[in-house]
Write the structure tokens for this entry.
Amino acid sequence: MNPEFTRNVWLELTPRRVLFMTVVLALIFFAAAVSGGSDWRPAAVAVFLYYFLVVFWGSRNAALAVVGEIRDRTWDSQRLSSLNAGQMTWGKLFGSTIYNWFGGGICLAVILTRDLVHQGVLHTLVELVYYIAVGVISQAASLLASLVAIRRKQRHTRLEIFVYQMAGIVAAIAVLLVWEAADPAGALLMGRKATDTIVWWGQIFDTRQFLLVSLAIFAAWTLVGCYREMRLELSMTNGPFVWLGFLVFIGLYTAGFDAWLTSGQQLTELDAVGRRLALAGSTFATLTYVMVLLEPKDRVLYRWIAGQIVTGRIDRAFYGFQAWMMSYIAALAVVVALTIRLIQFEGGFGEGPAVIVAGLGFLTRDVSIFVRLQSLPGRRRGDFAAVVVLFALYALLPAILGGLDLGGTLFCFYPKPTDPAWLGPVAAWTEAILVAATTIARLATGERSRARLAPA
Amino acid sequence: MIEVRDLVYEYPSKRALDGVSLVVAPQTITALVGPNGAGKTTLLRCLAALEPPYAGGVEVEGLSTRDSPRAIHALLGYLPDFFGLYDELSVRRCLTYAARSHGVAAALVSGAVEKAAQRVSIADRLETKAGELSRGLRQRLAIAQAIVHEPKVLLLDEPAAGLDPQARRELSTLLVSLKDAGMTLVVSSHILAELEDYCSEMIIIDNGHIAGGKALKVRDDERPRYLIELASARGDLREFLAGAGVEVAEADENHAVIVFTRNASARAKLVRDLVNAGFEVARFGESTKALEDAYFAQVGRS
């Protein structure tokens, strides 16, 4: 058996703890049963307990799976072990939460017994998949958040560990909301009345089946994310193809929801292809922001990539690309395609293409700000500074200018239709080129001055 | 066995290693010494493929830490300066986990655990929880975890910290026996006295550089270090010795540390020459602080 899993079982599933959990849960269910009300009150209590044990507590244990090792100074020994990234990932993910799954398993038995009696085998199986998926997604999200933080060399204070735990809880809440919203009983999904069917890429699917498959796929991607971060922790390198695969998946997945852009949306006038490109482009741009915030801005890596590109080895440079770079390139490609589509649709470079091109310019500027503020020597809080700068650029300064009746200059801060149409893109790209150029120059200067200041 | 070329490592605000190059021969014990903050731990972590170099390279058994970190991990045992143990597990389970996670086959784990425990003299504590061990015994358990899979290279960062004199002596014996069993050891410490007994070579790290640019021989059985002590000060002691063709490691008006042949006749002649030249030789004997002498000869008595 996986040694890491076995070690966690030794630590977590001691006879005393197993007995304690069993007795406490039995007493709670007994109390629920004798307190009156519905015949299946224990099952309702079990649902609450499952979420508490597996999602709330389990995500905390998953967040601590590696962070706790770092805190207890055992992580280096584990990094030097012969366990591969897959073994380490599942050993940690399911090992650190084995006690939660033990308690959750008891709760699940009570829940599924009710379902089996009242709603049949198929519904019970669907519920089983849902409960396991929500537990795995929440715990994997917390583990992933903690691994990303480790790469960013966070300090792992109690607050930060709580943030990692919250990542899992938020993921579980998202899953729960979507799942509940798909209930034909009448919950709401993004402001729309839920139905028992869903349109995706023009095809009609059963909502619950569609969401179940989506859940399973996103759970798998979360696990893949954990695995790849674990590889990096074990001093291994990740090639670009898995992230590219994810980009293709997420682009196609989100593009399939074009039928949802039917009313009150700016892109309603577009044809299906245009709407799908817009959805995919927005997704890639969002991923660029998320990844440039999360990934360590490693000037050693940037130096290496620049060296490869300068010497014409683009293919080798590609292997060193970070996720935000690939997301940016994907966004760039989709925006170019969308712009061409819009020009064809509008019969010229009008308001629509101008806003899209300006948006890409601002994305370029913002990414450059993140890189500039974080990747320089001695910078520890560069990402925070970058977020503050972006807040100033997107909210603070526009609010001030708006208050001073200078609203006509807002196209310098975010994508906005202008007259003439080309003014917005020119402003955005001027800013982008200036910030990108100074960032590259500053990085190069930093390298040279560091070389000069090296101790003799 | 280990080759480091122009290694540079940087923290966000500091260059910790700057152009370090060294070679560690197989089946040797090399001391890594230097003041606190000199870069010893960083160098060990780079050797262990735990930290990627900013520039330069590290090879262990011909494998690059940049290209084959996991293959290198499989060759290594590593004891960090501040290590942790699983306090709630018994010593046996701690060692079993270490063995299994380092790829020891299930059928061989029990034997490997017993052997490692015996090597560090904790075989009688196998059923004790790690959290109940004294500091010295915890250190021994940590070393046992690092050697349970019989690594080819063993990196130890301050291994004697917290050990009593008896345990330090046992540690020396253990490290020598591991070397004799075929391991290559690199031991970091800033306590020179504890390295004296078992190290054959010494690398002095100072401010991210290797002082003197290369490893120094700690003990040379053919040409050991001798201490000359004068009864009355003579400012020309160094010049006289150098003029006599003697390698002077360190000298002042009252003392000199020299590297000289073990040949008795040659030593007798040197003493005779010193006396004939008017030096009042109060003592001439093999230095008992070879490591310390070599260290201060390189970095100075600051």
Summary: DSSP finds 16 helices and four strands in chain A. The first helix of chain A runs from residue 3 to 12. Strands of chain A lie at 188-189, 192-193, 197-200, 203-206. The first strand of chain A starts at residue 188 and ends at 189.
